[in-house]
Specification:
alpha+beta; three-stranded antiparallel sheet; 3 strands; 16% strand
Length: 166
């Protein structure tokens, strides 16, 4: 009898392909992660680390094999998370769709998701417009300063030429 507790994460003979099977990202991956264990996925860019994490998180499905988290197929939700190397959105969703997805994971009703997503997207758009206005004002100010400095330099140069003739 195995005295070890059931694994929190279990993968058995997992495979995943992309581009209609032309790109084999993962092949025959099997391992368990038990409570208290710490694992690292190490490998060069493009070797399948992120694909494996997305399978475990339930963001994509395996083409073959079995993935289990706490004994069940993984489902995206508040109890599973993945931190990307850079901020990421679900590229197939709109901004509002990404916000709605997060709100759905919190269990909000569809109408509430839509209302909150629209409000947050509008607030973000407003902040971005304000940043753009501030950036444009800063560029205009920099251009004016450069023009003033250039004019002053030309005047100084002209004065210096006038003194050298005397």
């Amino acid at each position: 009898m195995d005295a070890r507790p059931d694994p929190l994460i279990s993968l058995r003979h997992v495979g995943k392909s992309f581009k209609d099977g032309q790109v084999r990202a993962l092949e025959d991956i099997s391992f368990d992660v038990r409570d208290g264990e710490f694992i690292s996925l190490v490998g060069p860019s493009g070797c399948g680390k992120t694909t494996l994490l997305r399978l475990i998180n339930g963001l994509i499905a395996a083409d073959e094999g079995m993935v289990r988290v706490n004994g069940a197929p993984p489902q995206p939700g508040p109890d599973l998370a993945m931190v990307f190397q850079s901020a990421r959105l679900l590229p197939w969703r709109t901004v509002a769709g990404n916000i709605e997805f997060a709100l759905a994971l919190r269990g909000l009703e569809k109408n509430e998701q839509r209302e909150r997503a629209r409000a947050r997207a509008a607030a973000q758009a407003s902040r971005e417009r304000q940043r753009a206005r501030e950036a444009a004002a800063s560029e205009a100010s920099t251009a004016q300063t450069a023009a003033r400095d250039g004019a002053a330099a030309e005047e100084t140069s002209a004065q210096a030429k006038g003194h050298s003739r005397n």
